[in-house]
Design a protein that fits this description.
Length: 151
């Protein structure tokens, strides 16, 4: 909420040349006006396969983490902040395979992680079937720090 009035118009202006459709909460709509569509729970849970995004203005980090954990895909999430404590809470509490601080989630790619060509994506927490040893009962969470890097 502290940056919404300043940030959202800049973001909308930056997205306009690419005709990105914005779905927003009532507070987002108050700031951006009639140029955006109202967001629904279905919008927040949807993985858009085109130039569309959903935006929600939240009052706190707690509310942001709750919203993300309710609607995310479990793949990649990012926080942009100068607040170290907030970044650490985000890294610890957001349920995703890769969590970023101040870097683009577009880095979540098998080749970028040094795995060679990416042949698939999994958001499952456990991957094994059949008889399992101890290593099969573990899961991996990647933590990435950045200073504004984009891909």
């Amino acid at each position: 909420k502290n940056v919404a009035e300043q940030f959202l118009p800049m973001a909308a202006e930056g997205l306009a040349p690419d005709h990105v459709a914005i779905h927003g909460c009532p507070r987002t709509m108050d700031i951006l006006g009639d140029s955006i569509a109202p967001a629904t729970d279905e919008d927040y849970g949807r993985e858009y396969l085109g130039y569309e995004i959903s935006c929600k203005v939240v009052d706190s980090l707690d509310e942001a983490i709750e919203h993300i954990n309710r609607f995310n895909t479990g793949h990649s999430e990012c926080i942009v902040t100068r607040d170290y404590d907030a970044s650490q809470r985000f890294l610890e509490e957001v349920d995703a395979a890769a969590v970023y601080v101040n870097a683009s989630t577009r880095f979540t790619d098998g080749f970028e992680f040094g795995f060679g060509a990416e042949i698939g994506i999994s958001t499952q927490k456990l991957h094994a079937r059949g008889p399992m040893g101890l290593t099969a009962l573990t899961t991996t969470k990647y933590i990435i720090y950045g200073n504004g890097q984009v891909r």
